[in-house]
Amino acid sequence: MKSIAQIYYPWYKLFLVSLTVIFSGRFQSQEFAFKDRKLGFEYRADDLLKRLTLEEKISLMQDSSSPIQRLGIKKYNWWNESLHGVARAGLATVFPQPIGMAASFDEDLVYRVFNAVSDEARAKNTIFSKQGNYERYQGLTMWTPTVNILRDPRWGRGIETYGEDPYLTGLLGVAAVKGLQGPRFTDQYDKVHACAKHFAVHSGPEWNRHSFDAKNIKPRDLYETYLPAFEELVKSGDVQEVMCAYNRFEGEPCCGNDQLLMQILRKKWGFKGIVVSDCGAIADFYKENAHKTHSDAIKASAAAVLSGTDLECGSSYKKLKDAVMNGDLKESDIDVSVRRLLIARFRLGEMDDLEDVQWSKIDPSVIASTEHAELALEAARKSIVLLENKNHILPLKKDGMKIAVMGPNANDPVMQWGNYNGTPKETVTILDGIRSASKNSSDVIFEQGTGLVENTVFESAYAECSFKNQKGVNAKYWNNPETKGSPKVVQNLAHPFNLCTSGNTVFAPGVELTGFSAEYETVFKPTKSGEVTLQLYINGKVQVMVNDKLVKEAKTGHGARKLNHSFQGESGKSYHIKIIFAHGSGDAQLNFDIGYNEAVDYQRSLSKIKDADIIVFAGGISPSLEGEEMGVDLPGFKRGDRTDINLPEVQLNFLKELHRTGKPIVFINCSGSSIALGEVAETSSAIIQAWYPGQEGGKAVADVLFGDYNPSARLPITFYKNIDQLPDFENYDMEGRTYRYFRSEPLYPFGYGLSYSNFKYGKIKAEKRKIKKGNTVDFTIPVSNTGTVDGLETVQLYVRKIDDAEGPIRNLRAVKKVFIKGGETASVKFTIGEKELKWWSVKEGEMTVQEGKYEIEIGSSSMDKDLNKMILKVR
Predict the structure, then answer these.
(1) I want to staple 175 with a disulfide (CB 3.0 to 4.6 A). Which of 107, 205, 236, 706 is the partner?
(2) What pLDDT, on the 0 to 100 scale, is given for residue 23?
(3) Are 766 and 779 in contact (CB under 8 A)?
(4) Are 199 and 257 in contact (CB under 8 A)?
(5) What is the Rg, in whole angstroms, of the alpha carbon atoms belonging to the chain?
(6) Is residue 411 a contact partner of residue 430, using CB atoms and an 8 Å limit?
(7) pLDDT tens digits for range 294-326
(8) How far apart are CA 490 and CA 475, in angstroms?
(9) Same domain flag for 245 and 262
(10) Do the beta carbons of residue 539 and residue 589 sit within 8 Å?
(11) Which key words tag this protein in UniProt (predicted)?
């Protein structure tokens, strides 16, 4: 006879096993070593890696990484942007475009800007995480800074760079990385991760970047110009990500380039972080009309992984399992990349609870805060370069003077935001800034006069819109993305509208922030015949219909953009206009107006400003014309690049008409690169280079105009006289480019900029004139402010190797920002050594310190006449 124990034990055992199975999902995670915060990041990554299936590993190698619920791993989207402020994620402080910040020559300023940016990024990520949102533009991996060299002003993405000089780019790029990533401790979480892009030998053209091969690059140009900033960010900035570029380098796509990614980045420089592909770059390996170096996504993905590209922005890596199955790569190759990705996520604290991450304690009030607005103003002031000031016409008086503010950029806030931008609380336009600074705002006359490129000026006719006997536009909203069912909200919009969900601002009360759709309907009955223009600025999915015919359709996935449509309208005729909108990703945005592009009329404009004492003309170009692979093909522009570097003809012609009035003209140039301003200088008494100055740009410009700020910025690029001074755009040889290899006379040189102070440089004094390789030497130079206005001087030190006829004319090797009161002298000291004296060695095939004579040059710009010199012998 069986005992009670023998009868019930098998059932008891089965019950325990069942409980284990049922509750294992609940308690198992507590047993995993990778969940233990006391363990090191690398140990935790190794423990998690061995628990992943091949499919799970591959899912983690895509920019939108799927959650792994069985292990408690959240979804993560690697793609976020913060070029000059948190971008595409709603409300944020918008600082000047990087090319503008580069003009400050101020690494401390750049560090403080990006420290503020990372504060906002962390605070926004905390908000998103608490809401359970892990989408694009919400994560902690910021794909910035851009440290490509602006070798040619025609490149549209030059606006994203820190200029044409490798040293300055490295200096400011490192400052940006350190500001973003925060203090680095082995046992504490990182603030956010920065990404050096686009690696490498990448600076246009935009129109053929998916098939372009940067080939026959001289080793000297590679190591002396195209790579130093990346090396500096890896070695001095400890940057955690590097993005490989779209183009090929010497026949191989950059994202599958063994020389760049393995031999140089990994082995030579010791980079241990993540390499991420530019978006869609792996598909370029096999797509028609692209590189077509590989047969399909399987071969392309395997080649990219074996070359060191860990993370793909795109969808080709979905084929990695096939690549493993057919032997193109091993699972252990996958493991190398996944381990790097896991370490990064552990370092960011993204795998742990928010309350355990110190950076999640940053208060959301920092987002678009007053303090950050003040920093944006400081950055904008320090970015403005005074190029001309004939007869000291500047600064202007604040009263007793009538000022005509003119030009296409005078009252355009969107222009000031640049590209890869967030949405500020408010923007001070140049017109706003001048009006606020003037003692009597009625003394400021605004007359735009002309457009950027077109010989027209937009005049709103929104008042001629109505729907069912109500003036304006009828708006309907649904809290679903397909306009299904009855609308949740119906309202009338009586005025041109600017709708944006930035800062959790809904399109209308009762409408959700995301996942919504809308329909805008009106009847436009023009009072005159002519070309009618619908002006839209969108972020989302949009269809535009006129008289029930689809005339425009767009879906943005790369930030907001303009979307216009024009048609011939007849007076008295009715036009039924409908706009269907749906939220896409990030913040939804829809700006709308309707009107006429009126032909430029010189006499009409001149009659409106006849009482003005002086004209401030804000012109130049715009991020709507120059930028990343854009669909813009207008005279002088091609897909975001420029085919000409002159100021658009319509503006030049207008300036000439203004010049004939005899009134003095102050020209404010807004652009992301150099413009040939020779003819502008002939018509203008003063020229200011304002770049794309961010949300506070208008106040900063006004502060310089009226003398509330003494300009201190210097050009981070060469301003050429004309396009004939430039080599072919697709030629990547440095000869003839930038101040380092440009042998002719520029219009304005690199490092140049005027001040309201007068600075005079004395003789250089050297601690010694001969040093051994590896030693350092001190140089001092007296700099006097001989004027009465206190000022901040940008003291520049250049080095030239005397016996190198084929090398650069000179190389910037140090910068000091020195504040000097009027009538006083400062002694400015530089210490240089091995890093500053490195020069290209043909024999060794790299940058080294060599024996010989070096000329040390210190002064106010890169022009020979502005530099004091002495010889240093190295042995």
Answers:
(1) 107
(2) 44
(3) yes
(4) no
(5) 29
(6) yes
(7) 999 999 999 999 999 999 999 999 999 999 999
(8) 6
(9) yes
(10) yes
(11) Hydrolase, Signal
- Which residue in 725, 710, 603 sits closest to 676, CA to CA? 725
Question: Any residues with CB less than 8 A from the CB of 17 and at least 6 apart, and which?
Answer: none
Please give the backbone phi and psi of residue 759, each rounded to the nearest 5 degrees, phi first.
-110, 135
Q: Closest Cα to residue 430, out of 701, 684, 664, 622?
A: 701
For residue 811, which of 850, 851, 862 has the smallest C-alpha distance? 862
1's tokens? 């006879």
CA quadruple 215, 221, 224, 229: dihedral, nearest 10: -40
Higher pLDDT, 400 or 78: 78
pLDDT mean across residues, the chain: 94
The count of C-alpha atoms lying within 13 angstroms of the C-alpha of 739, restricted to the half-sphere facing its C-beta, is 28
Q: How far, in Å, CA of 127 to CA of 90, rounded?
A: 12
Active site amino acids: 278, 626
Looking at the fold, whether 622 and 610 belong to one and the same domain comes out as: yes
Handedness of CA 222, 225, 227, 232 (dihedral sign): positive
What are residue 573's phi and psi, to 5 degrees?
A: -85, 150
Indicate whether 839 pLDDT > 90. yes
Please, which pLDDT band fits residue 640 given cuts at 50, 70 and 90? very high
Q: What pLDDT band is residue 20 in, cutting at 50, 70 and 90?
A: very low
- Cα–Cα dist 315/318, whole Å: 6
Question: Is 354 within the bounds of a domain?
Answer: no
Segment (H or E) for 374? helix 370-383
* Residue 27 confidence (pLDDT) above 70: no
Q: Could you tell me if 164 and 750 are in contact, meaning their C-beta atoms sit under 8 angstroms apart?
A: yes
Beta strands, E only, 696-737:
none
Buried b (16+ CB within 10 A) or exposed e, 138-162: bbbbbbbbbbbbbbbbbbbbbbbbb
Length in residues, the chain: 875
| pTM listed for this prediction | 0.90
The domain total for the chain is 5
The DSSP line for 575-637 is EEEEEEEE--SSS-EEEEEEEEEEEP-HHHHHHHTTT-SEEEEEEE--TTTSSSS-S---TTE
Q: Answer for the pair 353, 37: CB distance below 8 angstroms, yes or no.
A: no
How is the beta sheet containing 614-620 ordered, strand by strand? Answer: 385-389, 686-689, 665-670, 614-620, 403-406, 444-447
Alpha-carbon distance of 268 to 228, in angstroms, equals: 13
Bridge partners of 646, per DSSP, are 676
Torsion of CA 138, 142, 143, 146, to 10 degrees: 140
**687 shares a domain with 638:** yes
Nearest to 72 by CA among 464, 441, 345, 419: 345
The two tokens of residue 375 are: 């920093």
| 725 & 836 share domain | no
Q: Which tokens sit at 597? A: 């592009």
Residues 764 and 858 in one domain: yes
Q: Is the pLDDT of residue 407 over 80?
A: yes
Q: Domain span at residue 340?
A: 41-61+196-221+239-347
Q: Check if the beta carbon of residue 563 is closer than 8 Å to that of residue 589.
A: no
| Cα separation, 517 vs 514, whole angstroms | 9
Q: Is residue 256 part of a domain?
A: yes
pLDDT value of residue 745: 97
Q: Are residues 296 and 376 in the same domain?
A: no
Confidence tier at 14 by pLDDT (50, 70, 90): very low
pLDDT band at 509 (very low <50, low <70, confident <90, very high): confident
54-58: average pLDDT: 98
